## 1
Amino acid sequence: MKKQPARFNMYRKPNKPRWYLKIVEFVASPFYLLFGNGHVKTDKAVKKLKGPYLILSTHASFMDFPMIVKGIMPRTTGWVMSVEEFRRGDWLMYGIGGMPKRKFTHDIVTAKHMLRYLKTEKHSVTLYPEARFSFAGTNERLDGAIGKFCKHAKVPVVMCMANGNFINSPQWSKHPYRGIRQEAHLYVLLTPEEMENMTADEVQAKIEKAFEKDEYRWQVEKGYHTKCKKRANGLYRILYKCPACNQEFQTKSEGIHLWCEACGAKWEMDTLSRLKGVNTDKGFSHIPDWYNWEREEVRKEVEEGTYRFEDEVRIEDYYSTKVGFVNIGSARVVHDENGFTFEGEADGKPFRLHKPVSSMYSVHIEYDFLSRGDAFDIATEETTYFMFLKNAKNYLTKMHFATEELYDKLVRNAGK
């Protein structure tokens, strides 16, 4: 039997960016921004910073990366990134200063890597604390320990607020690009001196306030029109519930239209990404309002104790950079007030995995991940499993809501 290589090593010490990859970043980023209509503004206070600092950035598309590279030139940064991104090659991801992270876990190994990078290597670090691309152009919830980490790090905190990159390439339909102007602003959010006189909760609150955004409102206020003829493609992935008939998972979208196959209600998306009923007066003009209404509907199910999801999943194990993803079996998944429970067979052996509600404040979802189907990932101490839904259609957004609402009910708001 061929010996399997070692699993991905989360404890490998990250290194500073390699000089030759710095050159690639410096040359490629301005061209990427030029052809992507990207624009970056960096405050003078950021440019005057002498030592290392922590960059906190919103996260909506790949454009986030060249924006930061361009914004802090000639300085460079290390990057906290999801472990599966290392499938592109250790030489590349560690070469640009990558630090692996398993999403929505309570491990501290990545935090230790970041502190070492800042303190020992004396090098800046970029973190995307939302840990996923935005789904509806609004801010997603943050890890509650960011404020505590920033106080402990005792370095300046720089904020990067990016707008337009979500509209240009939304998570639910990354292509074709919408051709809209994209903007980023880097500024000093907190200094070490300011944080000395603040509690960790106060630092956390200021960071969460800085992340508040609404891309669709920004687009209307700026008057940035998109003439893409396929701008509504994939919109049904986040707007899965019809406000006209309340049916779930019956919406479809193509071109500039979204419709419900159950009742026939239809909406058109204009060049400012607003929705207007074609044959109905029900619905929402503002996409985040529709998205938030769906969350409220899921919250009701959670509060009433009626939320439950069950399906079959195909299990893929992200083994290591060298091996990549390995199809290891299948399982039955149940998601309810007990959390995620999987029972099946993997590698020819019984497979059982339980992730209680308290262990995950959110869940990472991927629409048609690597063109292999809708998936969500579940991390353990040893690995990250990607679970591909076999039967449920377009369920991921509701799962995302339910995971967060279950956490709020049973953990965050327990005892209040």
## 2
Amino acid sequence: MEPEQHDVIVIGAGIAGLSAAWDLRDRDVVVLERARRVGGRIWSEQRGDLWLNLGAHVYAGDDSAAGTLMREVGAEPRDIPGVLTGVSYKGRLVADGPLELYPFKLPLSLRGRAEFVRTGLRLRKLVAQYGEMARQRPREQPAALQQRMLEFMDDRSFTDELGVLHPEVDAFFRCTLTRGTGEPEQIAAGYGVGYFHLAWNKEDGLGRNIVGGPQTLIDGLAAPHGDRIRFGVVVNRITQDADGVTVECDDNGTRRTLRAKAAIVTTPSHVTAELVAGLPAATDAALRAITYGPMISAAFLTDEEGPQRWDDIYAIATPGRATSMLFNMGNVLMPQRHRGSSFMSYSSADLARRIMGEPDETILDTYQAELENVFPELQGHVVERLLHRTDPGIPYPFVGRSRIQPALMEPLGRVHLAGDYLGSWYAETSVWTGRQAAAAAKQQ
């Protein structure tokens, strides 16, 4: 049979693939997706004016790649009004006042409190250095900025930089750092410092949520394509020659061959290395070197009435628990909302590995107990709960990660790579690499 002909084939319907397809919506483009839904790790479900969130939830500002895309699609980002630095520890919730005073408000030992202060002051200096380094220069391209960010303190791990901490202090820093699915001993020091920069400098980092949930952005990106997005398609091989790209796949049990002028591949790095034939040795090795960790997230919908004490809090670290963080999704709607709440909690890295094999209901029961421990008044008010397992989850920069970045960014002819593993900005990386790949495909 003759191959099915298209202008561009996009492999993967996560935000990277959909960002590329959005820029190619006036071309003959087809999107091949293995799963039965669009969005990849981004996933939310609307419930009235609230939404259950199970994936990415915070985004950069108007001048970012994601911000530009939201304007084009018509999604409604809104600055998070609440506190991003809440902490719940041994039954005490602290979410107000200067961060420097937290060690004196939390139930810590004298030794733990002293080390917390010393470590916090040292980290403050590193965060300030990171902020200066990460400031985009006039006319600087994203790829150049990303390379510089990856090189920052890339020769040692976060633990190497700060040393082995007192167990009480370690628990606090670990639950923040493992949001990227790597442990402090595994992640590059600069990447870890960057996480604290995001949390402590909301205006410079990821300080916006999407009203209605991030699925509204995903659905908006997918809307122009209709049945050009094909679900249940397993891609087996991608080859290229001087005239185009050939994609061999299993389309819901039927073997198909597709042909196009270009292909945009947005699968996880290890999958990409297996699918794309004839990769340069350095690119192949770089793709296989990328590290991912697991993540399990849960969403809870509640039905309490009236204003609540958590209304002005968005993020709460939960050290020493089965979960790492707790997020109040409804915070972005305040002060208008006064019925019910939506929370997301998650475990990642080693915490997720320990429970990945447990039944859904067991994990949900554990997460709900943790939620009700932080806010006991929610007992009897949880009306819906959902669970999402992701393995591989988010790619994290390991020690020496910057050295493989040039090989990952090397042009590959008619095959173009996109995805969050090409940098350290998560959805932001996915968007700018997806749109960059679309621009390159248009030239072929």
## 3
Amino acid sequence: MLRLIDPTSVPALRRDAVDADTAAVAARIVGDVQRGGEAALRAHAERLGDLAPGAPLVVERDALQEAFEGLPAADQGVLLRTAERIRAFADAQRAALGPVEIPIPGGVAGLRYAPVERAGCYAPGGRHPLPSSVLMTAITARAAGVREVWVASPRPAPETLAAAYVAGADALLAVGGAQAIAALAYGAGPVPVCDAVVGPGNRWVTAAKQHVAGTVAIDMLAGPSELVVVADSTADPARVAADLLAQAEHDPDAVPILILMATSPEPFLAALEEQLLTLPTAAVAREALGNGFVTVVTEAAVAAGLCDRLAPEHLALHGPSAEELAPSLLHYGSLFVGEGAAEVLGDYGAGPNHTLPTGGTARSCGALSVATFLRVQTWMRLDDSRAALPMVADAVALARMEGLEAHARAAELRLDRSG
């Protein structure tokens, strides 16, 4: 159960994304796949139970379609509608990132956003199948304009395969863990080298992403799920408890936190206990509740300060007094304002992405978005060499200031041409 602590004792969520032992093992696996290709990938996948001996590594596009068509019509509809909401939000992001062009002396300079050519999107497949993660990552990559999209997920359920089809994936690698990340980053047999590798996963996945980050773009190093709920005295204890448990059931390492504004914790703790009695995932949720805490504050400014110090993955505001904090909050992965904006609606496709920074890293990075798959490419053109003279002269002077004579001479040649 959540422990009651004083506001002055609230710990930071900052933590290392990967421990040293996990990093070392993941690095060995990644190195094996980088050197050994398909044979090493298969060996690790079979050793760790991803694949039966001789089973295919890759599920092709036509098999993904078969999986979708084999689902009940109601499940197909859920995937299609959810995909459309995610796609609409991602398309709006892409439309907001247009080219820039400004005049410079004698010419023009600009930038454009160019998608990476190939992306690998990881979706966990351990305790529960997560087709939602397939939709969140692969659809966003397609909206960014990525030409080729691969999904990787161990022991993929039919729903996961169907989600990959709906999201527009070209194929699915039926392997997980560090070995899947290595295959996406370096290529292995039928799996091509990807330019970006994204998606949530366990500590082995996170460690592998950290290892390959110098080779490919990654989204973030995400750890166990976190939720901070800020509730005032009018908040519904049942809704607050339900939101906390929805995150707690993810993983025994999840971190549910409750910040109460001038109200007793007893009704909220009682609601948690009541709902745990009938929750099928109560064992996992109860263990996760032990990682979290509840604290009571008397001032809104204190609540806001605690939220910004924690910089949580998810931040939910219940009740009018809590909702008033929204404009002043600075650090969070995703914000849910009001009791109606349940955090699980963000998990399951209201539009914003559910792949979010954890461990306090929301202070420095944000959600997976189309920008994750885009590169900023700058350019310049000079048409009027005479108008460019002052800028070129400054370049010559700055180069000599730095002791780089070849730079200075290259710029001086442009002075000669414009003389």
